[in-house]
């Protein structure tokens, strides 16, 4: 799962440690989520979105969009 | 980097358990060598140091439950590595022991090796994570 955490952090001039403290998780957790190495739980994803005052799908989006529309049409 | 309150509490309790363990080892050695006790007391004195280790295990479990989801995943991965290492090394040892004379291994060393190895692997995984992010 991709995300915009790094950009959102940079906009607020927050370090990974600052965000981790806000979320109550380790810096390693923020780092892993940010790099797409770890898919966060739904709760953590909501927490991250809430910290940035955004909706969850404004922060996280899938790696590849499934091309189901064209299959349904054919 | 400042340690969290949970980390400090964990370290204090864990180190206390280790100090109690060392004290009981000393008591065990003293009582077995110098006192003439009945067999059941000798057995009790021999296994007495296990108690603080069980306590340390529960301290670690409490600490594990306070970890965030990613650190839990890393800790779990480290356990998988350690179980793999233990199983493969004991299997290799057993296979060799069937065919060749092998040095004796005291089973009492397995537990500290596993727990110590696990702690080391967790640190390695965290270090690798930090290296990848730089």
TrEMBL record, chain A:
Signal peptide bounds: none
User: What SUPFAM superfamilies does UniProt report for this protein, alphabetically?
Assistant: lambda repressor-like DNA-binding domains (SSF47413)
PROSITE patterns linked to this entry: HTH_CROC1
Every HTH cro/C1-type domain range: 5-59
- Superkingdom field: Bacteria
Keywords from the named record:
DNA-binding
Keyword Mitochondrion set for record: no
Q: Which InterPro entries match?
A: Cro/C1-type_HTH, Lambda_DNA-bd_dom_sf
What name has this protein been given in UniProt? Helix-turn-helix transcriptional regulator
UniProtKB/TrEMBL annotation, chain B:
Membrane-crossing segments per the record: 41-58, 78-96, 108-127
Keywords, sorted A to Z? Membrane, Transmembrane, Transmembrane helix
Q: Quote the protein name from its UniProt record.
A: Uncharacterized protein
Source species:
Rheinheimera baltica
């Amino acid at each position: 799962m991709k995300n915009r955490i790094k950009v959102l952090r940079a906009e607020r001039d927050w370090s990974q440690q600052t965000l981790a403290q806000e979320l109550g998780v380790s810096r390693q957790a923020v780092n892993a989520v940010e790099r797409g190495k770890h898919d966060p739980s739904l709760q953590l994803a909501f927490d991250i979105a809430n910290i940035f005052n955004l909706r969850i799908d404004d922060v996280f989006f899938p790696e590849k969009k499934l091309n189901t529309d064209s299959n349904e049409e054919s | 980097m400042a340690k969290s309150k949970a980390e400090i509490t964990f370290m204090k309790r864990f180190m206390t358990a280790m100090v109690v363990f060392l004290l009981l080892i000393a008591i065990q050695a003293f009582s077995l060598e110098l006192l003439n006790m009945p067999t059941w007391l000798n057995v009790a004195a021999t296994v007495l140091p296990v108690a603080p280790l069980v306590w340390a295990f529960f301290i670690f479990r409490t600490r594990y439950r306070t970890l965030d989801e990613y650190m839990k995943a890393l800790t779990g991965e480290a356990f998988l590595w350690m179980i793999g290492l233990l199983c493969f090394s004991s299997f290799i040892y057993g296979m060799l022991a069937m065919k060749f004379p092998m040095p004796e291994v005291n089973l009492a060393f397995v537990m500290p090796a596993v727990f110590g190895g696990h702690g080391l692997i967790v640190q390695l995984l965290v270090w690798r994570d930090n290296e990848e992010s730089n």
